[in-house]
Amino acid sequence: xxxxxxxxxxxxxxxxxxxxxxxxxxxxxxxxxxxxxxxxxxxxxxxxxxxxxxxxxxxxxxxxxxxxxxxxxxxxxxxxxxxxxxxxxxxxxxxxxxxxxxxxxxxxxxxxxxxxxxxxxxxxxxxxxxxxxxxxxxxxxxxxxxxxxxxxxxxxxxxxxxxxxxxxxxxxxxxxxxxxxxxxxxxxxxxxxxxxxxxxxxxxxxxxxxxxxxxxxxxxxxxxxxxxxxxxxxxxxxxxxxxxxxxxxxxxxxxxxxxxxxxxxxxxxxxxxxxxxxxxxxxxxxxxxxxxxxxxxxxxxxxxxxxxxxxxxxxxxxxxxxxxxxxxxxxxxxxxxxxxxxxxxxxxxxxxxxxxxxxxxxxxxxxxxxxxxxxxxxxxxxxxxxxxxxxxxxxxxxxxxxxxxxxxxxxxxxxxxxxxxxxxxxxxxxxxxxxxxxxxxxxxxxxxxxxxxxxxxxxxxxxxxxxxxxxxxxxxxxxxxxxxxxxxxxxxxxxxxxxxxxxxxxxxxxxxxxxxxxxxxxxxxxxxxxxxxxxxxxxxxxxxxxxxxxxxxxxxxxxxxxxxxxxxxxxxxxxxxxxxxxxxxxxxxxxxxxxxxxxxxxxxxxxxxxxxxxxxxxxxxxxxxxxxxxxxxxxxxxxxxxxxxxxxxxxxxxxxxxxxxxxxxxxxxxxxxxxxxxxxxxxxxxxxxxxxxxxxxxxxxxxxxxxxxxxxxxxxxxxxxxxxxxxxxxxxxxxxxxxxxxxxxxxxxxxxxxxxxxxxxxxxxxxxxxxxxxxxxxxxxxxxxxxx
Length: 788
Description:
This protein is mainly beta. The chain has eight domains: 2-105, Immunoglobulin-like, CATH 2.60.40; 109-208, Immunoglobulins (Immunoglobulin-like), CATH 2.60.40.10; 215-309, Immunoglobulins (Immunoglobulin-like); 313-403, Immunoglobulin-like (Sandwich), CATH 2.60.40.10; 414-493, Immunoglobulin-like (Sandwich); 502-592, Immunoglobulin-like (Sandwich), CATH 2.60.40.10; 598-627; 629-788, no CATH class.
């Protein structure tokens, strides 16, 4: 320290003298490194300013300083900061005259050394010597470390490192660090700016010797495990050892259990572990140490399967009795808490049936060999006792259960109630009137795998159930040597899940509305009941709308939609336990109202039918008009008149439509009648008839010829026509038939068929002038008449 101050003084005084001549200000010893907790002094030359100066440490004012006209000195005592900035200021101008950065360094500390083995199978001297320490340094500095032997006659290096640990081969330095005596080492740290050494570390070689890991073995007995270990002969000194073990589990990592520490002097040890479960895998490990030396590494792990401990076996025999078949045989499903399948020993299971009454004779016992934990046997209608026996090596276990007779009167519990809470089922019931010794509660979710538990109370809690499964639960009262009848409750869910799957089944759109239908299918028996449905819908870019309906709805009509627009829709079912959603469906509203299109279609159809009907009617009328026959005068009565009429003065061919001529001279067409009276029988019988026919048309067939009038009255028409009953001579223009210009007649008509009373040629009154009528004749009409 004094040498440092002397050098500092020699460096500062010339600088001060030089500063007087140069009239400069500066701080001497910038970027100085000091050891943590030491003192230092900083000088500020003040020849460049007049007046006082002051110091700041990290911008904080410092009072402790000494000053004169040429310099100011600042003393720092017990300085512990990692780094600090010192500045000298002019009191008048506040100007910074100079500054320095002070950094600190520490010496290595907390040294520990270890003798250990690189190869855990090595015996004898250890392989390696390792020392480690702590040191806080500036990361930007490169520091070299050296481990020095302080106990040696002359301090010598053991190993070098740039880290805070250093390892060297022990065989090379065994003469410096012998096992038979204590040793002392020092760690030196050196950088470009400073150098520091640790305090000496003294140790005994055996106190730092980390021995090799022990060898371990585990033996399994029926009621305990024996753990044994051993160490190499070189370490037969006082030792302390620890044993840890864990039980294998299905999920997650095993939890290690650390047993107590044992001490031994013989290089080996053993420990008995009693509290272990039967037929389970256990893993063990052991570590040891010499005295207070560090622990060795843990031994290799050893896993062993424990044997069956008879004290852990509780059979808990129970049965389920089926209904008797037509032969009176009942199937009994016997079940018990069997031996774990992981047990590798050999076990024999036997079911024995015996009558309930021991004094019954003539009934043989029936034995059945069974597998582990379940067995089906058949019994008759009588009361039986089922006995289970398990054999293993030199011991045997047994249990029995009662099977009631068919129709046997036995007590039964009543008023079974169940409830579900957070995955467990709570069961309660009312006890029968008879005193009971307990109750057996059995339950199953599939009818094949049963679980059961016994209780003395009128309630039970069922744990470890499958999630969201329906269970059938049966409660049976137990007596001293019998069992009562079981009371069953069906389909109690261990938990209620989400509602069933929702699916949209139909979408019907119009221009401004849509009908959405959906359905719900429950995939699980314990699905939650739907409370309500929420229908979410909207356009791709528009807001999402929703409508909520109750649980009974299966369709909804969404209104006030935009025409010709695409929408999306989702139906969400909500239960007390959760929600489920349908897949998103898209639909497109129509551009126009379908009802308008339907109305237009119906109207158009009706119009088309009307047009077609009108056209059909017109066509029919036109066809009738076109197909109406042209009147043929050849079929008229005129063509049938006999040529002999010329000789008798009959007028066969009178002028057409001459009113001055007689009625026999005209060819008449249909015209309006002025009288509806029938024609007279003959002109000679009623002379006035000719007068009455003035202004009328008479049928020539009914008017007699002039030359006939003088003759005798003809015979009645009936007599003249007696030989021609099929012929007629009635007028076509009568009131009962359509008008026609011709007389109806047969083609075979002859003049003899005409009426016997013919009209004479007589003048008639001049008729009033009437419009001309169109008459049709054919050229062959007279030829037809002549040829007849």
